[in-house]
Design a protein that fits this description.
The protein is mostly beta strands. The protein has three domains: 222 residues, no CATH class; 124 residues, Lipocalin; 102 residues, Lipocalin (Beta Barrel), CATH 2.40.128. The chain is built from five helices and 32 strands. It is globular, with a radius of gyration of 28 Å.
Length: 492
């Protein structure tokens, strides 16, 4: 009996070891998926049409290289722009939606559905449908429960050949196979398109009951008015009978009575004119009309950066592209620290000192940000800090000794710090705030203990340069409690 028990224990142990090896080595795939699952990273390409303004010789080209992976390869001339992965309704495999454009054509982008086929035990392209958008650099792909039944709709936004905003919505057909989708809305307007938010019940949040459907609002020019800023708001609601979004309400919204000639100059000037118009600091305006200096945007078209400040946190985005719209520009931006985080910003003119912002954040990366950026922003007064790039930097090909080590500034905008043989590199930038000379250092290599950018106030002292660490905010320049750095010129 004892020998039988020992033998049984040894057998159980051997089986456990074999099972661990079976799972760890991936041999299970050959049993459950006879055809090996193929993951294909798409090519890195530049969009065929972009409106890009670069500064300081730095390229502003957009490439589709951030986690854009398709389960199966597409055709050679199909360039993938965005990919959305979601769990299938049965929960057995992952489904995939990919937006692509055909390199040899100038038509609209397409969306393809890649699903798992139970018969062949492999991934296949199930269907392809065109969307209304054309310009690849304006495309955003995300999912949202618009109807309130937890059947997430697939939404593609972007701009068409007429520089109109577009939104195409696909929804899974209830009661049919999970791979069946239909187009329930496709809107195009020379204005803006907004999915209206709605408060859903606690029962919906807990998965007990359905929620109310979200409406979609479009804002376009009132053609019967001579005021360029007068708009028509059109509301589209979901009709459960036709299973389509249908127009339900039209409202005329009077715009500000301001100088029409200046507006026409901005519109005719294209993206470059609106970029220059947006330059500087803009404060958030609450629905009650009060200015909230705790939340603001800073547009720097020369440095190709957009700074978001809210809830005490500052986020810096690289200004990639600007596409013209009827009353402004549509901006694609990328977070400097997290390259997979994209923001699409619809900037529209409300008056000569206020703009309306709608932000669509790429949801591939799940980051909880409590601040809502949508709304009206008013330009900061002349008393607010104004940032200007220095035209005559005080350092060009200069060498200094400092407490950090030997610092070399080159006229290419790069710096090096040599400290006991350890060399650190980066880029530097000079600018001016309210008459104060400032130096910004951007290290090339960033780890958990370092910062992506450091700003110093520059002062002269007996032929040396004194760098004092500061922070820029709505109150102007604020000194940090760090010892100053003395730069002593090295005389060759």
């Amino acid at each position: 009996m004892k020998k039988t028990f020992i033998g049984f224990s040894i057998a159980i142990g051997a089986i456990s070891v074999l099972l661990i090896l079976f799972l760890a080595t991936g041999l299970w795939k050959f049993f459950f998926y006879p055809e090996e699952e193929e993951f294909v990273r798409t090519r890195i390409v530049t969009p065929r049409e972009t409106t890009i303004h670069s500064a300081s010789g730095q390229s502003g080209q957009v490439t589709w290289n951030q986690n854009v992976i398709t389960r199966i390869p597409l055709n050679d001339d199909e360039i993938v722009i965005a990919v959305l992965n979601k769990e299938s309704e049965e929960g057995l495999a992952e489904e995939q939606f990919a937006v692509y454009y055909i390199e040899s054509q100038t038509g609209p982008v397409h969306i393809t559905f890649i699903g798992f086929d139970e018969t062949s035990r492999s991934y296949k392209r199930i269907w392809d449908m065109p969307a209304a958008a054309v310009h690849p650099e304006t495309i955003s792909l995300f999912s949202q429960d618009l109807i309130g039944d937890r059947n997430n709709c697939i939404i593609v936004t972007g701009m068409n050949a007429q520089n109109e905003h577009t939104m195409t919505i696909f929804r899974r057909i209830i009661g049919q196979q999970a791979h069946s989708y239909k187009k329930i809305a496709e809107l195009q307007i020379a204005g803006s398109i907004v999915i209206q938010d709605i408060q859903r019940s606690l029962a919906y949040q807990q998965g007990i009951a359905r929620g109310a459907s979200r409406n979609i609002a479009t804002y376009g020019h009132d053609t019967r008015s001579e005021n360029i800023l007068d708009q028509i708001e059109t509301i589209y609601s979901y009709n459960p009978v036709s299973q389509q979004y249908e127009q339900t309400n039209v409202t005329r919204i009077p715009g500000s009575q301001i100088e029409q000639r200046r507006i026409r100059e901005l519109i005719s000037g294209g993206p470059a004119a609106f970029e220059e118009f947006s330059r500087g600091l803009w404060y958030f305006v609450s629905p009650q009309g009060t200015i909230d200096t705790r939340q603001y945007l800073y547009f720097d078209p020369t440095g190709r950066e957009i700074i978001f400040f809210g809830d005490g946190a500052q986020q810096i985005f690289r200004w990639q592209t600007s596409s013209p719209s009827r009353l402004g520009i549509y901006i694609r931006s990328q977070n400097l620290s997290i390259s997979t985080l994209l923001r699409f910003i619809n900037l529209e003119l409300e008056s000569l000192d206020s703009i309306k912002i709608t932000v669509n954040e790429d949801v591939r990366l799940k980051i909880q940000v409590s601040t809502t950026w949508d709304g009206t922003y008013r330009r900061a007064t002349t008393a607010a800090p104004q940032r200007q790039l220095s035209k005559t930097p005080w350092i060009t090909d200069a060498l200094f000794d400092s407490t950090w080590g030997r610092m070399q500034f080159s006229d290419t905008g790069e710096y090096t710090i040599n400290s006991s043989g350890v060399v650190r590199k980066g880029r530097y930038l000079f600018f001016n705030v309210d008459g104060n000379d400032l130096l910004e250092l951007r290290p090339e290599e960033i780890d958990s203990s370092s910062e992506s950018r450091m700003v110093f106030k520059v002062e002269n002292s007996a032929g040396n340069r004194i760098l004092s660490r500061v922070r820029l905010g709505t109150a102007g320049i604020q000194y940090l409690l760090e010892p100053p750095i003395t730069l002593t010129p090295v005389i060759n």
